[in-house]
Structures are given as C-alpha cells and as structure tokens.
Amino acid sequence: MGEQEGRLKAEATGGEQAVQPAAPQTPAAHKEPQEESEDQEQSALKEWVGLLVRAGIWALLIYLFIFQVSIVEGDSMRPAFSEGDKLVIDKLTYRFSPAGRFDVIVFEAVDANRAPPYRARDYIKRVIGLPGDTVSIHDGEVWVNGTRLDDKCGPTFVNGSRDKHELLVPPGHYFVLGDNRGASKDSRVQARQSLGYVDERQIKGLVRLRFWPWRKWKWFSRGP
Q1: 64-128+174-219 in CATH: which number?
Q2: pLDDT 10s digits, 185-200
Q3: Largest CA distance in the chain
Q4: Does residue 97 carry a catalytic annotation?
Q5: What is the rounded average pLDDT of the residues 38-49?
Q6: Bridge partner residues of 176 (DSSP)
Q7: Out of 31, 46, 70, 125, which one is annotated catalytic?
Q8: 51-75 burial: b if 16+ Cβ within 10 Å, else e
Q9: pTM
C-alpha cells in the first residue's frame, strides 16, 4: 500500500500533466436595473451620433461632387428663371465633358461693384461663346463666328450702344449672357462693370431641375 501511494505521488509531482486545482470563480456582479437603463441610453446615443456623422459626411460629399441646391436672386435670367426659383445644380456632368453653347450654368465670380466688395458669389447665366469663339454684338443682335443667334432674348447692346463690339473668347473661358439682356451683368464688358469671361474653373455646374415653385417644376436638358 505504501508503494502504491508513493507511485501516485511521484506521477502527480514529477509528470508534465499534473493538474492544479482551479481557483474558485467569483460570481458576476449583478447590475441594478437603473444602471442597465443608463447603459442602454448611452449605447443608443452613440448609435445616433454615429449615424448623424455618417449622414453628414455623405451629404458633404454629395454637395461637393454631385449636386447642390441654389436659389435664384434677381431678374437677369427672366423669363426662364425668376427670383426665388429653387434649382438643382448638376456638378457631375462637367467632370466628364465641357460646357456647351446655350447651357445654363452656375459659376462663382467676384462683382467688384457690389457690397461687400470682392466677395465671391454664385451667378446663373447662359453660355453663348465657347473657348476660341468670336462673339460680335451690334445693332441689338448677337453673332457667334459670323452666325447670328436667334435666341429670342430681345435686343442686346453693350453699354446701350448699337456700335459693333467684337470679342475673342480666350482658351479655357466662356462668354455668358443673361436672358434678360437689359438687366443682366455678364460678359459683355471686360471691366469692373462686367463679370467678364468665365474661367472653366469658376463653373460649379449645370442647371438641371427647378423644383420650386412646384407649379413651375421643370427638367432642363443641355443646350442644343
């Protein structure tokens, strides 16, 4: 009996598979109902904050790269667009193709004669001259590369003069006019009294949709 007890002790102490007694387990702490409720509220708040952050990031990306909403101010584009019209501006199209003649665009420019001075604003105008075009205005009519435009926007003058004014649109720029020619500041004069040629880098996008007022809802295709 003594020999058997000795062998068991040797196996238990000298072998590699000796088993140590398990430490007693401490029972999990029980949370009070009030603590559980606070944890759930904090978890829900974190989820909402995360959702709002993701939504804000998506909204910013859409605004920067896909479209924006603009509100028309003034009457320079009447009768096509009026004060208060709400428009959707397509920012994606011009990433793949240049602006075309008669496209209605929104671009950023500085009007030195408007207070506060030298502050960039968004303007809406119609593209008339493309890079390299020769635009002539005389006797109330607009000519592009020797062809008279039949745009039905009424008489067009430069500073009220019927004399001939000829402009060569530089590379990478566009010549724009407002549809309401008598009440539009646009590319007709290359000075402080004008917005001048529009650099392609100033263009924010193409007017695609008027959604307000709802009775004037309209989808706008690109110029012919």
Answers
A1: 2.10.109.10
A2: 999 977 666 789 999 9
A3: 131
A4: no
A5: 75
A6: 127
A7: 125
A8: eeeeeeeeeeeeeeeebbebebebb
A9: 0.73
